[in-house]
Amino acid sequence: MSDERFLSITERLERRLPRRVIRLRGLPYSCCGAEVVEFFADIVDIVNGEAGVHFTLTKEGRPNGEAYIELETDADVEKAMIKDRTQLQDRYIEIFKATTEEMDYVLEKTERQANQPWENVVKLRGVPYKCTSDRIRQFLRELDIPAHGVVMVTDARGRNTGEAFVQLKSHEHAEQALLKHKECIDRRYIEVFKATRAEMSQASQSLHNHCNGDHYYSQQNSSLKGVGLDGVYRHVVQMRGIPFRATEEQVRSFFGLDFEISAVQFEIGADHRPTGRASVAFPTHEDAEKAMKKDKECMGKRYIELMILSSQNTPIDGIGPNGEYLFMIHMRGLPFRVHARDIVSFFDPIPILDIHLEMGPKGPTGAGQVAFFSAQERSDALKRDKENIGDRYIELFAIKPLPSAHSRSIQQPHYSFPQAVGRHY
C-alpha cells in the first residue's frame, strides 16, 4: 500500500490526489473509529486509519449514527459496498457512495455547529401531558430559571404536546440542565437537548395565540444576520485568552462600534467554569475577515488570539430552508430483501440524494422514500412508475416537502439544524 494512504485530507488536497468517499448509516451511537476500521479490515484499508473515520452529529451535538470514510481506489469503494446491510454490533449498516463535496460540506457544517453561540436554552421532550411549568421547575430545582423562563409547547387546542423549552440564567446552569438527560418526571424518561431562543420564542408565540397565556420571550441582543440556509451562523470568529469574567458588552467593545455582531457565546468547560474562549458571529464573511485584524490586541491586560471559522459555501441542492428534502418520491411494492443499490439501479442514471427503506416491527415493509436533487430529476424518476425490480412492479408517488425534522420520512440527521441560530459545545 502506498504511503499516500497516511496523508491528511489537507495534504491530499495540496497534492491534488483523487479522493474517494463512502457514507455509512445506522452505526451504533457508541461506535468508535477503531470499530469501523475493524468492520472493513478484511476488505479495504481506510485512508489515515481511525483518523480517516469522520463521524457526524445531530444538532444537539450527539452522534447520529453516520460517518464518512475515505478510501484509496475505486476498487476499494466497490469492495466496501459488499458490506452494505451487514451487521456491526447487531445493527444493519447501510453504505452509500458519496462525493468529496458532500463530505466536506457536512463536516464543515458539523464543525461550525460545534462552535456556534448557544443561548442557555434547553428543550425537553417526553414530558407527561399533564405536566405543568411548576413541575418542570421542580425537575430543574437546583437551577436558576427566570420568570416566564418555562414554555410548555401546546397544539391548536391548547393541549400539551410533550415538549417544553426552558431558559436558564447562566451557562453553568444550562450545562447542568443537559445532565438531566434521561432522568424521569413521573416515571417518564425526559430527553434534554440544546435549543435556541428562536425556537423557544416560536413556541411561546404559539402558546400565546392558542390560549392567551403570558409566556413571552424576547430575542435580546442576538441577530439572525449571517445565518445560512442550513440555520447555522456561517461567519464565526473564535476568541482565545479572554478574561474569565469578561461580559458580552466587553467582547462587543473589543471589536468596536465599526463592527456589527450577530451573537456572542462564551465557552464553559467540563468543570462548569469559563474556559477563556468565546465564539462571535458576524453578518458576513467580509465582516469576519475584517474582525481578524484585531488578532493579538488586548482586552484589559490580556492579549486575545482570534481564529476565523467562516465559509461562503452553500448547502447541497434539494434541501430546503428548514432542512427538509424538497423533491421526494414514495415507493411501494419493493421486494423485502431490496438493497439501496437496487434502487440506485432502478433510477439510473438519475442521481439520488438519499434513500430510506421503511422498517416495521417484523422487518422491511416493502416501502421506502427517495430524495432527488431537483424537481426535473424527480419528474424523470416518476416515469419509472409500474416498472419492475426483480419480479415485482413498483408504484411511485410524489411527496410534498415535510416541514420539520421530527416528521420527515427520510431521516437525514446530518442535515438537521437549528431553525434560527446555531449551537455551541
UniProtKB/TrEMBL annotation:
Keywords (A to Z) from UniProt: Repeat, RNA-binding
Classification via InterPro entries: ESRP (IPR050666), Nucleotide-bd_a/b_plait_sf (IPR012677), RBD_domain_sf (IPR035979), RRM_dom (IPR000504)
Residue ranges annotated for the RRM domain, each copy included: 20-100, 120-197, 235-311
Recorded superkingdom: Eukaryota
Keyword Thylakoid attached: no
GO molecular function terms attached to this record: RNA binding
Name of protein: RRM domain-containing protein
Organism, as annotated: Oikopleura dioica (Tunicate)
